[in-house]
Amino acid sequence: MAVRTGDQGQAAMNGLTEKVLTLDTMNQCVRRVEYAVRGPIVVRALELEQELRQGMKKPFTEVIRANIGDAQAMGQKPITFMRQVLALCVDPELLSSPHFPEDAKRRAKRILQACGGHSLGAYTISSGIPMIREDVARYIERRDGGIPSDPNNIFLSTGASDAIVTVLKLLVAGEGRTRTGVLIPIPQYPLYSATVAELDAVQVNYYLDEERAWALDVGELRRALHQARDRCRPRALCVINPGNPTGQVQTRECIEAVIRFAFEERLFLLADEVYQDNVYAEGSQFHSFKKVLTEMGPPYATQQELASFHSTSKGYMGECGFRGGYVEVVNLDPEVQKQMLKLMSVRLCPPVSGQALLDVVVSPPEPSDPSSAQFQAEKQAVLAELAAKAKLTEQVFNEAPGIRCNPVQGAMYSFPRMELPPRAVQRAQELGVAPDMFFCMRLLEETGICVVPGSGFGQREGTYHFRMTILPPMEKLRPLLEKLSQFHAKFTREYS
Amino acid sequence: MAVRTGDQGQAAMNGLTEKVLTLDTMNQCVRRVEYAVRGPIVVRALELEQELRQGMKKPFTEVIRANIGDAQAMGQKPITFMRQVLALCVDPELLSSPHFPEDAKRRAKRILQACGGHSLGAYTISSGIPMIREDVARYIERRDGGIPSDPNNIFLSTGASDAIVTVLKLLVAGEGRTRTGVLIPIPQYPLYSATVAELDAVQVNYYLDEERAWALDVGELRRALHQARDRCRPRALCVINPGNPTGQVQTRECIEAVIRFAFEERLFLLADEVYQDNVYAEGSQFHSFKKVLTEMGPPYATQQELASFHSTSKGYMGECGFRGGYVEVVNLDPEVQKQMLKLMSVRLCPPVSGQALLDVVVSPPEPSDPSSAQFQAEKQAVLAELAAKAKLTEQVFNEAPGIRCNPVQGAMYSFPRMELPPRAVQRAQELGVAPDMFFCMRLLEETGICVVPGSGFGQREGTYHFRMTILPPMEKLRPLLEKLSQFHAKFTREYS
Question: Tens of pLDDT along A281-291?
Fold first, then answer.
């Protein structure tokens, strides 16, 4: 032993040491992780902003970060009541200030009463403040037309991402051909592929049907599942509704079919429902998996395992920075539920300011409360503007030759398909980048518009897309959409 | 295929379905995770609180949660200036309120300027707000007597735990006998053992020397390392200074020896320095690993890989609920550093209110600022009281027969050793629980005092300890310590 390490020690003293941690010796699962929403295109966008600040001349005056669903970064104002309650919780001396309405003070006091030492600075229990979990349960009951929700099945989290990773972590087992397979939609939100890679599980792709407005088809689920059984043990099915990046809102019939499929095939369901308040299209309506599952009765209602995720980051509030969220588990094995709590306890607790914010999200002012009118007005204004922007996006893109955009029924993104000329595809291949990455990078360099290439979300071979948020303010959005369309036309001419 | 799944489907329809996710089918690494600080003893403490609220008669009137370093839950007041800055950031309308001092307003404006959309509700880049990382770097430079710190080497995190897990995650590789071994102190803070179990790495214990006030001895490190080489590939060495649960503060000589050892044995160093402001004993002083490493010169300064962790949860502010923290990496391979940023980006960003709070922690008011005097007075009052409580704890425990407590040089805990009578040990074994868990559970049931058994942190075979925070308010602490000592005496008599 002494010899073995002595040699290394000697080599080290001579300055020959290689690092302990290198690309080759690091966790190779982590190395395989990809996360396009903050990938190279965003790194370059940050550099360009820096260069603009330093006075470098560019063909644009600002970088528009349409790559991420970050409403307040795009100028959306926080909901006044939420911030009032939170400021009162942060600095309880303000409880005596006439600046704040009575209902905000009442709410802040109620939250502080539920905190250790009456302070946001204390840890909470790992599943989150019990009172807030009760409020979440009541919110779910109202949302789902009275179907009961048990606060003991609700775990608060650091944004929805944290809860999604926790549930996937529980599900990962096996080795080689018995490794856990996780069915994820393509296109998907890349948290799923990233987490599956990090956990060394097997990603099983099922394709959403672009020709039918990105509908989820159970025949395709079945195909994906059966093909995957040779290489892994599929145990989990992830569904994103409303869809990210695709913006589709699933019909009740579709959800029923997915639940039947999951039940028959013994798949644990993960329902990413963080855009449940973001439904714009006429005729579209959000149906929670929990509600549909319950209304289908036994055996689904009593046996199908489900985890449903929600967040404070999206909806009409867009409070991404506070990292609030929750998961409701349904029909989870009680012993596994204890394991889940144990796992969460290692990280102590979700940020308490995010928990407090979530409380206001799930229990807004009552109609008789002084802040109710303003709260509702602010909420409706945001949602109405998002609906208008969803429509405008679809319309402008569909007027552009070579771009085709499905209706943005919900969520916060368009995911248009674009034609790319064969010479551009070839040029990209020569450069060793995906053709849509090549397009998006050129778009960024020449217009300052930052969108994410479809390859970061997955797409059918030979098709090209990009994801763009609908969040820029209305007065900027139309010129932005037109500029992007014009750039696409120019790019197409250049490579024709 | 259809048959295989059809059978299961049929079984399911007949109500015979087993759950997809059970103790047997779940992630077995997660199942092996243990986290005593929030384990069964705390579950029982919560139940007892509930029972007290329901009016059940107990031999005590309140549960004292001395199990976790949660200062504000124990009644410690937040630092006024920190909460003022944060409230202004949360609700910028308050910037026009005369309630707030000018320097708090200036600080809040500066933070908001650095946020997307000038709002805490926007995401930040995944490593945290650049301006705050610059402030952290300047803090480290001041702390370390001018040794440079590069903001690009600083990553903000969701408490220190998040950053520790991230760094360990990068380090995990190999299979069977080539699996990554992680050296951790015994006794340790159980985040380390829990994370090592979850990541399926190999825990390599090195024992701190209780007879020498929990000193870290390099001979023992060497023994642990060499014995471990048969079963794994040791690649990381975790050090907690000031110690948790042990309260020791390492000498500069000790740190130098550890660095030499890590370098010679090619170990990546993780320095958990979250208690860097919590040093009480005369003659003790905090030395950061970064500073010592740098002052040792090449090859250590230029080659030894190090990650140093800090947090907003401890120190004099005790803002656990905001989940603020950071890691500074030193000599990390630049390619690995990119991988680390990528991994962090999947979770988007640390809570922005925690980032803002961290900014105030690392750059308190300047002496010429209006809030400076109050800030310093509040800070010194907290630290002075903690020092008095550390001393009192040691003193009272050492007066009790059968209890022996090392000096609490730093951090927030005492970790006294206690004698347990053989009949109590035997009784515990009959019940299938660790003897110190048996003691702590009886203590809780009969006195309402909640402390964590030493077995949750690790201890030498046949020795028994508990961890108790020094955080209860002074007027409660002395009776608490006496009550605990008396219970130990009674327990000892009962089983003699």
Answer: 999 999 999 99
